[in-house]
From TrEMBL:
Residues 41-262 form the AB hydrolase-1 domain. This is Alpha/beta-hydrolase. It comes from the Eukaryota. Gene3D superfamilies: alpha/beta hydrolase. Pfam families: Abhydrolase_6 (PF12697). It comes from Gymnopus androsaceus JB14. Signal peptide: none annotated.
Length: 271
């Protein structure tokens, strides 16, 4: 009986919704102890609230309550075709009010970085951290050719990109998975699909719209803030007053996960 209750509670915590003032739903997950210091985690692109699940062991060890909201069109959050990066802080403030949070930290990685920058609210945010999130205005020549091609398609042919991504998701969703010695095909499918396909639960519109947002000007003036390829990150860091840039040699966009505990420890105030 106790085991079942714990399981149900865990499921409820990672699939919550909240009604925003304009009627949209905002999906979010929580990890770590409910009594821990609150940390708003903004997932990458394309991703969902489930991305933060990898931080659960660290959160429990460090007494951190991770709250992972989904941006419009991803997972459980209502798609908003006219949203901008700078609209995100209003949604976060509404969620913080709903959860009765007066102070919280913010962490955004990759595609979540611009949204973390936009949420530099001095009266509410104690610390914020941006990981592997270069602004495109720093120079697209640093980005891989495929990334540049996708960005141009998102800007000039968004409808085509939506159809293409929807088709690719369907192909992968129902494609054959190889047998594993330790997991059956069904077990592999259950484990992978929950994380891989949640961003596309409502289709690819949210993903394509965000691709447009991330590859254009974010609407953020780094110089006015008082609180990926390293050349692009340096460009951004030089324009943010009091910014501390930490570079990890020999790490990539994906191996940075090895430093997550250090990164999280730096963004949450010491108690």
């Amino acid at each position: 009986m106790n085991t079942r209750v714990c399981t149900l509670n865990k499921q409820a915590r990672d699939s919550q919704t909240f009604s925003l003032p304009d009627g949209r739903l905002l999906g979010y997950a929580e990890y770590g102890p409910p009594s821990g210091y609150p940390l708003m985690f903004f997932h990458g692109f394309p991703s969902s609230r489930f991305e933060a699940s990898v931080l659960d062991p660290i959160a429990r060890c460090r007494n951190i309550r991770i709250i992972a909201p989904e941006r419009p069109g991803f997972g459980l959050s209502t798609f908003q075709p006219r949203c901008r990066v700078t609209d995100w802080p209003a949604d976060i403030q509404s969620l913080a009010d709903h959860l009765e949070l007066t102070r919280f930290a913010v962490l955004g990685g990759s595609g979540g970085g611009p949204y973390a920058l936009a949420c530099a609210m001095p009266n509410a945010v104690s610390e914020w951290n941006v990981v592997c999130s270069p602004p495109w205005e720093a120079g697209r020549q640093y980005m891989p050719l495929m990334s540049r091609a996708i960005s141009l398609t998102a800007i000039y042919w968004p409808g085509g990109l939506v159809r293409l991504m929807d088709m690719l998701v369907r192909m992968v969703r129902w494609g054959d998975l190889e047998e594993s010695e330790s997991l059956t095909i069904e077990e592999q499918r259950t484990r992978l699909l929950r994380i891989l396909f949640e961003p596309f639960a409502q289709g690819a519109e949210g993903c394509v719209h965000e691709a447009q947002l991330l590859t254009q000007n974010w609407g953020i003036r780094y110089e006015d803030d008082t609180n990926a390829p390293v050349e692009m990150i340096r460009y951004m860091a030089e324009r943010i007053p009091h910014c501390v840039l930490r570079e990890y040699e020999d790490d990539t966009h994906f191996t940075i996960i090895r430093h997550l505990e250090e990164i999280i420890s730096g963004v949450v105030p010491k108690t």
